[in-house]
Amino acid sequence: MTVLDSRPDIPGDPEGRVIAPIEASTALISEAGVSMAPVHDLGAGRGPFWLDDWLRANATDVLAWRRHIHAHPELSRHEFATTEMVMSLLRSVGLKPWVLPTGTGVVCDIGSGERCVALRADMDALPLTEATGLPYASKNDGAAHMCGHDAHTAILLGAARALAGAPELPGRVRLIFQPAEEVMPGGALDMIAAGAMEGVERIYGLHCDPRLEVGKVGLREGPLTSAADLIELRLTSPGGHTSRPHLTADLVHALGTVITSLPAVLSRRVDPRSGTVLVWGAVHAGQAANAVPQDGVLRGTLRTADHEVWTMLEPLVASSVESLLAPTGVGFSLDYRRGVPPVVSDPESHALMRAGVEAALGEAAVAGTEQSSGGEDFGWYLEHVQGAFARLGVWPGEGPMADIHRPTFTLDERSLLCGVRTLVHTALATLA
Asked: Where does the record locate the signal sequence feature (predicted)?
């Protein structure tokens, strides 16, 4: 997850107008008139029959939806056109979706009954300029789907429309099309505040992984991503001449003390098995070489994979900073912003998702995956219900691995159909 500030001038339509209608026949043809062929369904024939039939007839649509969203990216909390597109496609098969009070984000139930399982996809793009050269590359300057959220949305749309055509479901499946995953606080909190978790017993999600070959799904019981908090420390000093540091408070020396000593203090106060790490990303102070500056700022991220450790970090950082700066005489203010909890897949949800992957793509599709220090606001849902999160392979199996959050990120579109099958089978396994 990337932490960004919301800005009023970012791409997106604040009036919520609908983007151009999408048709598979046109979305699979480039502006140069070059046809882009549909992709092979790696899970074809695994059933159930209604899912095989739906994908056989509609796989081209899933690709078209993804390419259309990719070409029209919208930044966090400005996903107005994407929201309208999702609403239209769900309504067209008789479903009754509703939009969050914030104006972006969609919730929709399929089926009936007391039991309910949720499937989540995020919809927002990154503030990057795309450099892929794709025929359906971003048309919005300064916005691009370089994290795969366009794929996540198309996958959940495919799962939704397939499930809507099922002869019978053993319960309800709740679709959560989430806005604003790329900012903090993220859209998961908007979803929860709007009641999207009410009545849900488990929740599942997927995220594109360019280090994993298409046809594979990375699963891990326990911590998958880390909590990610922001620290901003502002220091103040009377200032003065560097020839007389004893007559003032040496602000730059104080900054250096915190920069080097706070990570060391935390490494001795926190269990090293928790994967806790503090890394500074920005430091600013002063202009002249012979002047002690009057103010300075230090910013960094503090991450941990341990939920219990996460709950104790804020007071520990506050007391440690106070102790470190007390001898220096500088003033300070600490802004500690809690980001996202770690994503932790509980054993039962992990087992159910594994069963879903095996049913969807075969036992060989199950792959292990490493714990990441990155943040993902899916963790907020797991504060309320149990669930599991998985990494969807999008690497073609040859050539370079184009990492996410880079202007050159691309994915193998066979992964879209793998994702549809995985979500459908995971929901069925949970409700069985």
From this structure: none
For 223, other C-beta atoms within 10 Å of its C-beta total: 20
The pTM assigned to this predicted structure is 0.89
pLDDT digits 0-9 by tens, 142-155:
999 999 999 999 99
Distance in angstroms (rounded) separating the CA atoms of residues 294 and 56: 67
- Which element (helix H / strand E) includes 69? helix 49-71
Half-sphere exposure (CA, 13 Å, Cβ side) for 383?
Answer: 18
pLDDT tens readout for residues 300-355: 999 999 999 999 999 999 999 999 999 999 999 999 999 999 999 999 999 999 99
53, 56, 24, 54: which is closest to 41 by C-alpha? 56
How far apart (Å, rounded) are the C-alpha atoms in residues 344 and 221?
A: 7
**Environment class of residue 376 by beta-carbon count within 10 Å: exposed (0-12), middle (13-18) or buried (19+)?**
buried
122 burial class (0-12, 13-18, 19+ CB within 10 angstroms)?
Answer: buried
Phi and psi at 246, nearest 5°, equal: -75, -10
DSSP letter, residue 345:
E
* CA distance readout (Å), 107 to 68, 98, 233, 388: 21, 6, 39, 19
Please give the Cα distance from 148 to 10 (Å, whole number). Answer: 19
Are the C-beta atoms of residues 275 and 306 closer than 8 Å to each other? yes
Which amino acid, residue 53? Answer: D
Instruction: Find tokens 């970012």 and name the residue.
Output: 10
Tens digit of each residue's pLDDT (9 = 90 or more) over 108-140: 999 999 999 999 999 999 999 999 999 999 999
- Residues 6 or more apart in contact with residue 45 via CB below 8 angstroms: 52
Give which of 282, 286, 338 is closest to 314, Cα–Cα.
Answer: 338
Q: Extract the tokens encoding 144.
A: 């691009």
